[in-house]
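new request in #modeling-help
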Amino acid sequence: MNDRDMPDQQQLKAQLTAYRQSIDNIDAALVYMLAERFKITKKVGEYKAKYNLPPADKEREKRQIERLRRLAEEAHLDPDFSEKFLNFIIREVIRHHEQIREAEGE
Amino acid sequence: MNDRDMPDQQQLKAQLTAYRQSIDNIDAALVYMLAERFKITKKVGEYKAKYNLPPADKEREKRQIERLRRLAEEAHLDPDFSEKFLNFIIREVIRHHEQIREAEGE
């Protein structure tokens, strides 16, 4: 690389800071969306516990994974990652639902 | 529970469907936000590789975790989960950055 093309320390830092501000904004949005998602799955857990509905629905999960993989492709996100992400979230939801059932003394 | 309070199958299904539609909407938003986040971290990875900057920044990660935990509390999301979530994302980012460095023959 030509020395003239090399940004100085201040320019490097400014560019990194700009990227990081965008990442931080997106992370805040993700946290608020996740909080809302768990509010809904908490209600689903309470509803299923109240009416004795089965906690897991494998068919529903399969459809969710297929849909998220399709959306990921549209968004140019790795579909495998979107599947890993959904499984990560679902593990947390199951943990919450178990807590709800335990709290209800089942 | 009194039989009169028990919703019939159709009502149960309609309520679950309503919850699931909200979950699906949020999941679509999450996928698109994640796609955007990885677009930026990809640029960061390329930038760091180009100018030979260190791939990881432990101080930055520490600040990110503290901030996300604070945002999670505001959003009534489990702060421990927000930290697990960020670590899950960062693992994926590191995987991408390693791919970028390998592709550049480092």
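bot summary: Helices of chain B lie at 9-50, 58-74, 79-103.
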